[in-house]
C-alpha cells in the first residue's frame, strides 16, 4: 500500500469535506424522526442511557475501524473486504460482510425514502398553512389521512428517490457538499429554537426532561436494549459500509480518531436536542410518547401552528429535515453504486438507475404497510417494522460485530497502528481494547439477552 493510493471515484477535497459528508450521513431521520419515537416506545431515560453507552463503547471504536478499512483499501466495501483479508492472509469469506452491507443499504433506503417522502410532503403542508392554529386532534387527522393514501405516499417517495439518485449520479464528493455546509448548521440553530419554544411549557418541559434523562430500568425490555444498540449503529451510519466507502475517499493525513469523535458527538447532540424539543410538547398536548413512527409528524406541526413565526419555521424545519435525509440516503446507496461501477463495469448513470429502481420498488412494501397491507404481518410485524427490525436491530449490529473482529483480530496490528496513526500510544491501546473486547462482546451479550440465554 502506498500513500498515493486513491479511489477511482475521487477523493474529498479536505478533512472538512469528509467531516461534512460523514456528519451528513450520520445526522438524518435517525436523529429527528426515529430517536424520539423509539425512545417514546421504550420508556425514556433508561433507553437513552443504553443508547449513549452504545455510542461511546461500540459506536466510536467501530466508526474508527470502518473509516480505517475504507481508507486502507480505497474500494467499495465488498472489494475492501477481499483486498484486506488477502493482505492479512485471512479467509476469503470476509467479503460476505461487504455483501450484507450492500443489501442492508438497499433495505434501509427503501423505507428511509418513504419517511423522507413524508417530510417532503410536510414542507408543502407547512407552506399551505395546514398547521395554522391547529390542535392535536386536527394534526393527527391530517397525518392519518396522509397515511391512508398510497398514491400520495408513493408520489413523495418517488420524488425523494429521484432526488437521491440525481445527487448520487454526480458523484458524492461533488454533489451535496455546498448544500450540506449551509443546511446542517441551520438545522442545528432551528432545533435550539424549538427547544426554547418547548421551555415555555414550564411544567411539561420538566416532565419531558425527566422522561428523557431519568432512567427507570423497569421499563426497559431485552428488545428495548437491542433497539437502543441497533440505533447507535443506525444513527452513526455504521455496520454496512457507508462510512467505509466515505473513508475510502479520505485523504491520508487526516486523524481518524478525532474525526470519529467529532462526528459521533455532533450526531448525539442533534438527537438529544430533538428529544428535548419534542417530549415537552408530547406531554403538553396530552399525547402518548409511544405513538410510533408518526410521533414527530403529530407533534411538531402543533408547535408550528401555534408559535410566533411558526409558518416560516415550519417550512424551514421540514426543508432542512429533507436535506438531512438526503445527505444520509446518498450514503446508503453509494456502496452498491460503487460496486456496480467497479465490478460490473457499469457507468455511474446505469448503476444509479438500476439500484434506484430496485430500492424504489422495495419501498412500496413499506408504503402499503401503512394502509392497504397494514393487516399483513410476518412474525407479528408489518413490512415496515420487519425491514426496520431486520436492518437496524440485526444486520447492522452483526455487520458491526464482524468489522470489530476484523479490525481487532484479523488485521495485523502493525497495519491498524499505521493507518490510525494516533498521536499517543495510550489512545491506540484504548481503541484496541474496545475494538477487540468491549464492542464485539457487548453486541454478543445483547443478542444472547434477546434470545433469552442470558
Ligand atoms: N444515519 C442516518 C440517520 O440517522 C441513516 C443512515 C445513513 C444509515 N447511512 C446509513 C444507517 C448507513 C445505517 C447505515 O438518519
From TrEMBL:
Membrane topology: Multi-pass membrane protein
Predominant subcellular localization, coarse grouping: membrane
Ranges that cross the membrane: 12-33, 45-65, 96-119, 153-172, 179-200, 220-247, 259-285, 311-341, 353-374, 394-411, 431-451
Compartments where found: Membrane
Keyword Cell cycle: no
UniProtKB keywords: Membrane, Symport, Transmembrane, Transmembrane helix, Transport
Superkingdom in the source lineage: Bacteria
A Pfam entry, by short name: SNF
PROSITE patterns: NA_NEUROTRAN_SYMP_1, NA_NEUROTRAN_SYMP_3
Keyword Transmembrane found: yes
Family, similarity comment: Belongs to the sodium:neurotransmitter symporter (SNF) (TC 2.A.22) family.
NCBIfam families recorded: Na_transp
Identification of the protein by name: Transporter
Amino acid at each position: 500500500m502506498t500513500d498515493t493510493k486513491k479511489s477511482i471515484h475521487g477523493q474529498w477535497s479536505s478533512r472538512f469535506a469528509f467531516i461534512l459528508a460523514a456528519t451528513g450521513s450520520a445526522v438524518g431521520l435517525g436523529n429527528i424522526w426515529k430517536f424520539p419515537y423509539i425512545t417514546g416506545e421504550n420508556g425514556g431515560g433508561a433507553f437513552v442511557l443504553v443508547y449513549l453507552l452504545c455510542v461511546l463503547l461500540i459506536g466510536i471504536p467501530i466508526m474508527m475501524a470502518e473509516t480505517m478499512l475504507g481508507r486502507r483499501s480505497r474500494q467499495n466495501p465488498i472489494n475492501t473486504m477481499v483486498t484486506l483479508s488477502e493482505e492479512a492472509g485471512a479467509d476469503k469469506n470476509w467479503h460476505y460482510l461487504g455483501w450484507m452491507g450492500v443489501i442492508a443499504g438497499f433495505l434501509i433506503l427503501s423505507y428511509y425514502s418513504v419517511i423522507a417522502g413524508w417530510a417532503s410532503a410536510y414542507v408543502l403542508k407547512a407552506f399551505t398553512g395546514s398547521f395554522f392554529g391547529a390542535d392535536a386532534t386536527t394534526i393527527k387527522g391530517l397525518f392519518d389521512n396522509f397515511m391512508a393514501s398510497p398514491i400520495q405516499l408513493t408520489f413523495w417517495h418517488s420524488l425523494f428517490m429521484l432526488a437521491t439518485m440525481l445527487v448520487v449520479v454526480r458523484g458524492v464528493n461533488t454533489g451535496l457538499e455546498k448544500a450540506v455546509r449551509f443546511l446542517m448548521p441551520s438545522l442545528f440553530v432551528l432545533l435550539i429554537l424549538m427547544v426554547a419554544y418547548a421551555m415555555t411549557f414550564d411544567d411539561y418541559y420538566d416532565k419531558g426532561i425527566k422522561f428523557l434523562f431519568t432512567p427507570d430500568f423497569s421499563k426497559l425490555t431485552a428488545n428495548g436494549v437491542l433497539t437502543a444498540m441497533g440505533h447507535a449503529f443506525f444513527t452513526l451510519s455504521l455496520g454496512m459500509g457507508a462510512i467505509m466507502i466515505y473513508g475510502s475517499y479520505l485523504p491520508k493525513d487526516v486523524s481518524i480518531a478525532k474525526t470519529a469523535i467529532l462526528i459521533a458527538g455532533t450526531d448525539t447532540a442533534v438527537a438529544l436536542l430533538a428529544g428535548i424539543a419534542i417530549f415537552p410538547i408530547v406531554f403538553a398536548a396530552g399525547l402518548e410518547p409511544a405513538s410510533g413512527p408518526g410521533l414527530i409528524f403529530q407533534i411538531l406541526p402543533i408547535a408550528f401552528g401555534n408559535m410566533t413565526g411558526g409558518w416560516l419555521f415550519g417550512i424551514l424545519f421540514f426543508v432542512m429535515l429533507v436535506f438531512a435525509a438526503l445527505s444520509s440516503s446518498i450514503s446508503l446507496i453509494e456502496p452498491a453504486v460503487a460496486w456496480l461501477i467497479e465490478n460490473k463495469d457499469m457507468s455511474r448513470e446505469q448503476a444509479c438507475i438500476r439500484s434506484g429502481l430496485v430500492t424504489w420498488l422495495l419501498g412500496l412494501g413499506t408504503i402499503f404497510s401503512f394502509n392497504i397491507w397494514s393487516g399483513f404481518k410476518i412474525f407479528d410485524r408489518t413490512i415496515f417494522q420487519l425491514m426496520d427490525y431486520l436492518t437496524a436491530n440485526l444486520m447492522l449490529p452483526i455487520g458491526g460485530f464482524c468489522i470489530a473482529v476484523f479490525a481487532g483480530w484479523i488485521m495485523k496490528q502493525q497495519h491498524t497502528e499505521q493507518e490510525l496513526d494516533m498521536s499517543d500510544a495510550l489512545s491506540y491501546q484504548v481503541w484496541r481494547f474496545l475494538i477487540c473486547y468491549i464492542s464485539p462482546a457487548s453486541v454478543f451479550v445483547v443478542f444472547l439477552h434477546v434470545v433469552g440465554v442470558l
